[in-house]
């Protein structure tokens, strides 16, 4: 294919940028896996048009950057990114309305329609400031307040039916819409009894596992493999595992899942849930022995 080497270089550069956002222990492995997909996509015999193959390959590489950047902050980070885009587009639209109609009002002073749109745009901008400004004042860092304000403003202007779909799409729920600025943090758990500590870890894992979402434009874990392994973990924690199906914390830390180009589970969200499960398995007492 003409220009293949240059396209591969572009794809490798994008994947390299995506890999930099990952934790150090998995960075090189993910980069190699994703890079190996590039020539396979670019030479896919099922896609006849070279331009189509090139577009698919670049979309795949760009998807790793976009998806990894959103996943780095978890479900709330993905929601914040989307809401920031919504708030930014609204702000730009309101400013454009005010500036355009101010210019038209100068050109045609007698037309009341221009003054109406100036007032409407100004009210919308004032409303945005009313939502964001208090959160910036209360936040420990200004950017934290901006992020909280973007989420609150987006939740305010997006219709409920669309907001619920958006939450599902990014793997979030209504608790992620709660204002976190200035909220009191729960104290770190002390040396509690092993069973109680395990219970907390298991609860956190199940909450995360219930919010897996599909990575549409980048690699993800094979959903069937993840579901099967987590089912074994749950059975172990419930002391109901079948012979040979008991899972230990070491098994969780060492597990490797197959990946798929699109439609798999988000890798970082799954890894976060597995960390909680491993903590629960390690602390659960008494640990169920082999059946």
Q: Would you tell me the structural class of the helices and strands?
A: mainly alpha
Low-confidence stretches: 181-196, 286-291
Distance between the termini: 56 Å
Largest beta-sheet details = 2 strands, antiparallel
Average pLDDT level? 78
Q: What's the total count of β strands?
A: 4
Shape: flat
Strand order in the sheet with the most strands = 1-4
Order of helices and strands: HHHHHHHHEEHHEEH
Strand content is under 5%
Rg, rounded, reads 24 Å
Number of domains: 3
Helix content: 55-70%
Counted by DSSP, the helix tally is: 11
Feature tags:
291 residues, mainly alpha, two-stranded antiparallel ribbon, 11 helices, disordered C terminus
What does this 3D model show about the protein?
It is a single chain. With 291 residues, the chain is mainly α. The protein folds into three domains: 4-71, no CATH class; 74-177, no CATH class; 194-283, no CATH class. The protein contains eleven helices and four strands, in the order ααααααααββααββα. The strands form two sheets. Strands 1-4 form a two-stranded antiparallel sheet.
Write the layout of secondary structure elements.
Elements (H helix, E strand, L loop, with lengths): L3 H16 L4 H19 L7 H22 L2 H34 L4 H27 L3 H16 L2 H10 L24 H16 L4 E2 L4 E2 L1 H15 L11 H6 L4 E2 L3 E2 L1 H17 L8
Antiparallel strand pairs: 1-4, 2-3
Helix pairs in contact: 1-2, 1-3, 2-3, 4-5, 4-6, 5-6, 8-11, 9-11
